[in-house]
Amino acid sequence: MQLRQKLAFIALGISLVLAWQFLPQLVTGDAQAAHHEGGKMQYLVMGSGGPGFASPEQAVQLLEGVIIPSLEQLAKDEKILAGGLPVGDRAVAFIMEAASNDEVDQFVRAIPLWPALNWEVTPLQSFAGRAATESAVVQHLKQGM
Asked: Has residue 96 got a pLDDT over 90?
């Protein structure tokens, strides 16, 4: 993957995380709604390196048999919290919610597009969780001063 693609994925991932974390707060005005509860973890899932087409026949076959069904499946699934495709790229990125790494692995492998892309899955820590961790570090450091 080229550096430009990686940077685009990172930017898209950050945008998705921010949108998911703060959209409930912006809609409801509730600061606690921005922190998702329920024991499930969030994962940033990125697939890249989509197939090119050698002929119009192959394009029709891949689009009808793999790509369109994959996009429709992702659009309907309630585990997908946010996501989309980087404009002009043969790639996909989304944030999903799952109870375990195994659940994410099974989900990604069930996407018809799975064998055609290179996948990268990153578990996400909530902003509130990280803020609590850093606050504890600050308190510990202050005690040692």
From this structure: yes
Written as six digits, the tokens of 46 are: 């990125």
Identify the three-state secondary structure at position 126: coil
Q: Which long-range contacts (CB under 8 A, 24 or more apart) does 15-18 make?
A: 16/44, 16/82, 16/83, 16/93, 16/94, 16/95, 17/42, 17/44, 17/95, 17/124
Question: Rounded to a whole number, what is the distance in angstroms from the first to the last CA of the chain?
Answer: 46
> Minimal CA–CA distance to 120: which of 51, 60, 49, 31?
49
**What domains appear along the chain, each with residue ranges and CATH number?**
3-143 (3.30.70.1060)
Q: Is this prediction's pTM over 0.90?
A: no
AA letter at 72: E
Helix, strand or coil for residue 64? helix
The string of pLDDT tens digits covering residues 21-62 is 544 443 333 333 333 456 799 999 999 998 889 999 999 999
Stretch 80-108: mean pLDDT: 95
SS3 83: strand
